[in-house]
Amino acid sequence: MLQLNPDLNDLVTDAAAALAARLQTTATITAAAPGRVNLIGEHIDYCDGFVLPFAIDRYIVIAGAANGTSEARIATALGDSIAVLDVSNPQEPSEPKWANYIRGVIRGFQDRGHSVPGFDAFILSSVPGGAGLSSSAALECATATFLEGLLDTRLETKEKALLSQKAEHDFANVPCGIMDQFASAFGKPNRLVLIDCRSGEPELVPFENPDLTVLISNTMVHHELSDGGYASRRKNTEDGLKMLGKQSWRDVTEDDVRGNWDRLGDPVNRRARHVVGEIARTVAAASALGRNDFETLGPLMYASHESLRDDFEVSCKELDIMVDIARKIGRNGGVIGARMTGGGFGGSTVTLCESRKASDIAETLASEYEKITGITPQIFASRPSLGAHLVV
Ligand code: GLA
Question: What are phi and psi of 104, to 5 degrees?
């Protein structure tokens, strides 16, 4: 039941072979960037909060080469069509939509004064799409890294993440925070990427205990609500902060929210309660993890899920079912804690558990979930992995 993560070397080999078959091009540059899972700190990266994601060992790989023209020709494993981009002009959003992430990143380089030459590329992914695991950030960071190779230039890691985030804002129309691109760009083996979203600085926190396993359960559902849902949650938090008369959510206390409950009104008051509570939970969770205090950490993960479900309203029936199953397996069954991860409205849960029981737990999560929903989930374990890099 526990799915294996495809080996990055195999992805690289397969991408090069597909580039040769589809575009008759020999790869000279190959870039890889991972998706991410977030342990805790959800929907607070755009509220100056703390988040605790890591780069997973699932990657988007781009294999390609300059083609001596002014066009980028890009093929993927997802279909037969080839996106053709005129890179002699500043990029604008267009069709096909999936290529907008690439256009947006090219535009970021163009805005920094680079003239991007034509290239051929093939894109291959082991990051499940629409699963709340940041396949879009992986595509942006892989593209940025590919362009670094193509242009023989290097961006600071933080600049690469911010350029990628801007591509998501301007070309995919999602007003996301910085978590996904930071995790994909800064990830390191055996390290969590603790981000203080107020200072915009990541801290790499050790996560090396072999007795701990992180299970990712993709519910295989993605609700359309996500389109406007993310932007409207972000707007609620901006309105709330303004009504509280504060500069930053870090300056808001639980008492501030309680004392202004009616004035904030529903749903802004519940959104505010989530933000303040989740910031505190994330700080407490990072500290509990550091001292292997799982009795503190587990309840914080469940509380995060409940707050996202009831106050922030970004969970869904399938995510709740998956978390409930994990909770029922419980500490005796080896589960430390579980919660939805990522933007929500479908996607995946994250379950922290004891390694020696991980495959049994995955088995139970899959079979119980399927029994209740009729859907076969995708469950895999992941360890913190290397962020965006050129493969040499
Ligand atoms: C999406 C966004 C992130 C973050 C999460 C929720 O993944 O891209 O910036 O806001 O949702 O925590």
Answer: -60, -40
Do 335 and 329 meet the contact criterion of CB atoms below 8 Å apart? yes
pLDDT per residue over 122-150, tens digit each? 999 999 999 999 999 999 999 999 999 99
Number of H helices, E strands in the chain: 12, 14
C-beta atoms surrounding 334 within 10 Å: 17
Ligand 1 centre distance from Cα of residue 174 (Å): 10
How far, in Å, from the CA of 300 to the mean position of ligand 1? 19
Ligand 1 centre to CA of 299 (Å) is 22
Q: Is the CB of 55 under 6 A from ligand 1?
A: no
45 lines ligand 1 (CB under 6 A): yes
pLDDT at 225 over 60: no
Which token pair is 196?
Answer: 């203080």
Closest ligand 1 atom to Cα of 230: 11
Arithmetic mean of pLDDT over the chain: 97
Task: Specify whether the CB–CB gap between 303 and 273 falls below 8 A.
Answer: no
Please, what is the end-to-end C-alpha distance for the chain in angstroms? 33
Q: Which atom of ligand 1 is nearest to the CA of 46?
A: 10
Residue 180 annotated to the active site: yes
Give yes or no for a contact between 346 and 226, defined as CB atoms under 8 angstroms apart.
Answer: yes
In order of 61, 72, 147, the CA distances from 64 in angstroms are: 10, 10, 10
Cα Rg, the chain, nearest whole Å:
21
Cis peptide before 267 (omega within 30 of 0): yes
Other Cβ atoms within 10 Å of 189 Cβ, number: 14
Task: Please give the pLDDT value at position 383.
Answer: 97
Alpha-carbon span 388 to 182, nearest angstrom: 10
Pocket of ligand 1, candidates 56, 101, 164, 176: which has the most ligand atoms within 8 Å of its Cβ, to mutate? 176
The model's pLDDT over 304-341, given as tens digits with 9 standing for 90+, comes to 999 999 999 999 999 999 999 999 999 999 999 999 99
| Alpha carbon distance 109, 114 (integer Å) | 6
Contact status, residue 337 vs residue 300, Cβ threshold 8 Å: yes
